[in-house]
Amino acid sequence: MFGGNMQKMMKQVQKMQTDMAKMQEELAERTVEATAGGGAIKVVANGKNEVLSIEIAPEAVDPDDVEMLQDLVLAAVNESLRKSQEMVAQEMSKITGGVKIPGLF
């Protein structure tokens, strides 16, 4: 009764899985950058939500105010991860047609 439609749907699902796997590989190579403190802290993350680098400008280092430096690093790391997640969601929605698949992204 549903044979033809079911087979077509299964092919579409398989194509989507293949496309998503390929996209995940590509996103692992793409990066996003976030800064804090007017650029004093720069963090680069990839599409796998991995922090790749942290740059701290010398003028951001004040031995009398380590807490501020910690806050700036934390803010830049969190922003870079948020941007990474946003990039992944945006790219994956192109494959899924905007349908959010729980646990995927």
Helix proportion: 55-70%
- What is the overall silhouette? rod-shaped
CATH class of one domain: Alpha Beta
**Tally of DSSP helical segments:** 2
Q: How many strand segments?
A: 3
CATH architecture of one domain, please?
2-Layer Sandwich
Class from helix and strand fractions: alpha+beta
Strand order of the largest sheet: 1-2-3
Function: Binds to DNA and alters its conformation. May be involved in regulation of gene expression, nucleoid organization and DNA protection.
Subunit structure: Homodimer.
GO molecular function: DNA binding
Family: Belongs to the YbaB/EbfC family.
Give keywords:
Ybab, Chain: A; 3-stranded antiparallel β-sheet; alpha+beta
Quick overview:
The chain has helices at 3-29, 66-96; strands at 31-36, 41-46, 51-56. It is α+β, with helices and mostly antiparallel strands and 105 residues long. It has a domain at 29-95: Ybab, Chain: A.
Describe, in plain words, how this protein is organized in 3D.
- The protein has 105 residues and is α+β, with helices and mostly antiparallel strands.
- It has a domain at 29-95: 2-Layer Sandwich (Ybab, Chain: A).
- 55% of the residues lie in helices and 17% in strands.
- It is built from 2 helices and 3 strands, in the order αβββα.
- The chain has a 3-stranded antiparallel β-sheet with strand order 1-2-3.
- Helix 1 (3-29) runs antiparallel to helix 2.
- The chain is rod-shaped, with a radius of gyration of 20 Å.
- The mean pLDDT is 88.
